[in-house]
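Re-run with default settings, no changes from the original entry. Doing this only to confirm the output is reproducible before filing.
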Amino acid sequence: MTKLAVVILNWNGEKLLREFLPTVIENSKVPGVDVIVADNASTDHSIQILETEFPTVKIIRLDKNYGFTGGYNRALKQVEAEYIILLNSDIAPGNNWLPPLLKEMDENANTAICVPKIKSYRHPECFEYAGAAGGFIDKYGFPFCRGRIFNQIEEDKGQYNQSGPIFWASGAAMVVRTKLFFESGGLDEDFFAHMEEIDLCWRMKNRGWDVKYIAESEVYHLGGATLDYNNPRKVYLNFRNNLFLLTKNIAKNKLFVKLLQRMIIDGIAAVKFLFSAEFNNFWSVFRAHVRFYIMFFTMYKKRKQNLMQTNHNQHHEMYPGSIVVQFFIKGVRKYSELNNFIR
């Protein structure tokens, strides 16, 4: 069995493959490591490019576009490796990125998932939006990162060079134990894309496994290659999937209070979009809630299944306050300004 498989999910990404895959291959020349591209039935020249320009890369062909969640769930069933890295097609790994990740997984049996430091490809002095130096979540379910709160991104000045536990790892460059990935149910395909990795990490943590940030490993992420951060479709997915996330994973006896609180917060966000003339985003929030109401009992059924496997409800990596209040009312712009929280 292969020690580790670097699995890149591709859909019509011929330009990204040519730009980023050479770096992935060059910096992944470690014994026992395979580089694999899982193709979501691309209609461009992706397969031809892989076969002719990257003959060492293994190809998994899927019969249609299953999105991020469905694509990985199906592709990983065809991969035989102890560990798997889910790697976005727009990431350039740094030199020596794999040894620190492998060391963590080999030496700490309770680590189910780990993630490298994720920096900006265009501005390598800065962290990148989707992951930065490890992900966290507040008590209302709002995710943020060490190095990025909402749209405020910090420069990397070595302030987050301490590896350690986090709440969630970005799906842009996430190492996971293959056995635990499938035992936990894999990625939830109802999410399609966005926050599905947070859901996976939360399920893992509820079962007593650890999620770690490894500062010694770095990758550089282009970001926004699929959907721009302000795209109404992304807004819809983020609001809808965040409600899915809470419903499935929040501790027992807290669900309905949290959902009511989120309805109020999301309503305020929708009004803000309306008065800012961001009508598409306002409509996205409305649609997200309608879809959530339709899907509620499906998510509640998954919640009951998850609770049967839950043995850890208290997570130190969950911020006990509101990141919304800290950011929009108290003016907090840096993770390091959150008092009495994990450093």
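The chain has ten helices and 14 strands. Residues 3 and 248 are 32 Å apart (CA to CA).
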